[in-house]
UniProtKB/TrEMBL annotation, chain A:
This is UPF0434 protein CLV72_10180. It holds the Pfam family Trm112p. It comes from the Bacteria. One of its GO terms (cellular component) is cytosol. It comes from Allonocardiopsis opalescens. Belongs to the UPF0434 family.
UniProtKB/TrEMBL annotation, chain B:
One of its GO terms (biological process) is methylation. GO terms for molecular function: S-adenosylmethionine-dependent methyltransferase activity. PANTHER family: METHYLTRANSFERASE, N6-ADENOSINE-METHYLTRANSFERASE TMT1A. Pfam families: Methyltransf_11. Residues 52-145 form the Methyltransferase type domain. Keywords: Methyltransferase, Transferase. This is Phosphatidylethanolamine N-methyltransferase /phosphatidyl-N-methylethanolamine N-methyltransferase.
Length: 79, 210
C-alpha cells in the first residue's frame, strides 16, 4: 500500500525525540515475484543523522512515538 | 547517536489503559453532557486554520469543527485513533491522525493556528510539559482552546484526590488556567463549568514572547 502524505503535512512533522524534520522513506520489499504489484514499506525517518530514528506507519497512521521507533541500521526498537 | 529518552512508566501505562478503554469510551458521552453541556461544541467552533486536536481520543470533537479548519488529531492510543478514524469516515470529515505523545509532539515549532485539548490534560502525567509543547507548536498569535477537570480544591471532592492520584499513578492535577498562564499564554476567557469542577479556557500565544 502506497502512503500519501500531503507535502505541508510532511513539512510540519518533526522527530518527537530531537525535533528535526522528518522525511518519508518508501522502499520496495523483496518477494513481489508473483507478478503482483510490488509491496512497499514506508517509514518516517528523522533527517538528523545523529538521531535517525525511523517511525512506522501502521494501518495508514504514522506512529510517532520514540518507544516504537527503529534505530537506524537495526531492526530493533529504540528502547 | 543521541541517547533516546524512553517514555516514562506512567505514560506507557496510560497508553495501555486507553487502548483497553477505547471500545467502550463513548458510553461516557451522556454523563459528559450533563457535566459540561455544549462546551465542546462552543470551543470547537472557535478553531480556525491548521488545527491540532491533542488527545483526540475517539474524535468526539470532530462533528463540531468549522468547515475551514484543517484538523490533525494526535493520541497516545492506537485503539482510540481507530475509533476516531471510523467517526471521521461516518461524518465524511477529513482528519489527519498521528499516534503521538502530547508531552513530545511530533511537529515543528509554530505549525498550527489553533491547538485544542478537551478533557485530556488531566490524564497526562506531565501536564506542564504538554502545555509547553502546545505553546511550541502554536504560531505566535495562535489560539489555545482547553476544557479540563481541575484539581478538586475543596471538600468533599478534595478528599477524593489521593485516591484519584493513586489510581491513575499521576501527579495531582493543577488548574489548566494556571498552567497556561505560567507558560506565557495570554488568557482571553475563562469559565468554570460543572459547579467549578471543569475549566474552560480560551487563550493565545502572544506575538512576542519566549
Amino acid at each position: 500500500m502506497s502512503v500519501k502524505i500531503e507535502s505541508w503535512l510532511l513539512d510540519i512533522l518533526a522527530c518527537p525525540q530531537c525535533k528535526s524534520p522528518i522525511r518519508l522513506d518508501e522502499r520496495e520489499l523483496d518477494g513481489a515475484a508473483d507478478g503482483g504489484e510490488p509491496a512497499t514499506a514506508a517509514e518516517l525517518v528523522c533527517t538528523d543523522p545523529a538521531c535517525g530514528l525511523a517511525y512506522p506507519i501502521r494501518d495508514g497512521i504514522p506512529v510517532l512515538l520514540v518507544d516504537e521507533a527503529r534505530r537506524p541500521g537495526t531492526g530493533a526498537a529504540a528502547r | 547517536m543521541t541517547e533516546t529518552r524512553p517514555t516514562d512508566d506512567a505514560t506507557a501505562r496510560a497508553r495501555r489503559q486507553w487502548d483497553r478503554m477505547s471500545a467502550g469510551y463513548d458510553r461516557n458521552a451522556r454523563m459528559e453532557h450533563w457535566l459540561i453541556g455544549d462546551a465542546r461544541a462552543r470551543l470547537c467552533r472557535r478553531a480556525a486554520g491548521r488545527t491540532l486536536d491533542v488527545a483526540v481520543g475517539t474524535g468526539l470533537n470532530l462533528p463540531h469543527y468549522p468547515e475551514g479548519a484543517a484538523v490533525t488529531g494526535v493520541d497516545l492510543s492506537g485503539g482510540m485513533l481507530a475509533q476516531a478514524r471510523r467517526r471521521a469516515a461516518a461524518l465524511d470529515r477529513p482528519v489527519e491522525l498521528r499516534e503521538a505523545d502530547a508531552q513530545r509532539l511530533p511537529f515543528a515549532d509554530a505549525s498550527f493556528d489553533t491547538v485544542l485539548c478537551t478533557l485530556a490534560l488531566c490524564a497526562i502525567p506531565d501536564q506542564a510539559a504538554a502545555i509547553g509543547e502546545m505553546y511550541r507548536v502554536l504560531r505566535p498569535g495562535g489560539r489555545l482552546l482547553l476544557i479540563d477537570h481541575v484539581e478538586y480544591a475543596h471538600p468533599p471532592m478534595r478528599w477524593l484526590e489521593p485516591a484519584r492520584a493513586r489510581r491513575g499513578g499521576r501527579p495531582v492535577r493543577r488548574r489548566p488556567l494556571r498552567l497556561a498562564a505560567e507558560r506565557g499564554f495570554a488568557v482571553d476567557r475563562h469559565r468554570r463549568l460543572a459547579l467549578g469542577l471543569v475549566d474552560e479556557v480560551v487563550a493565545h500565544r502572544p506575538q512576542h514572547g519566549g
